[in-house]
Specification:
Helices cover 88% and strands 0% of the residues. It has a domain at 49-84. By secondary structure, the chain is an all-alpha fold.
Length: 84
């Protein structure tokens, strides 16, 4: 599917630059995360208090940061290997 939007519009919304499939996948995973995550946090807060939901959220953010760092490191390493 060709993108017929102007460059500034493509940068603003990002759909043409990353592809419609990726944007739809992002939306689907966001819906799944919100659908399962919100009730899980509510259940955790109901059983153990609001502090447990905040702690769980902080742990999830730390885990996501570690995964993002690992992915960036792997990309950098792959780029260096290709340049040799």
């Amino acid at each position: 599917m060709a993108c017929t939007l102007s460059l500034s519009t493509r940068r603003m919304i990002g759909w043409c630059s990353i592809g419609v499939g990726r944007a739809l996948a992002y939306t689907a995973f966001l819906d799944i995360a919100l659908g399962f995550g919100s009730p899980a946090f509510r259940l955790s807060a109901g059983w153990h208090g609001v502090g447990s939901a905040i702690l769980a959220g902080a742990l999830i953010v730390l885990a996501a940061t570690a995964v993002a760092g690992w992915l960036l490191y792997a990309k950098t390493t792959a780029t260096r290997d290709e340049s040799i």
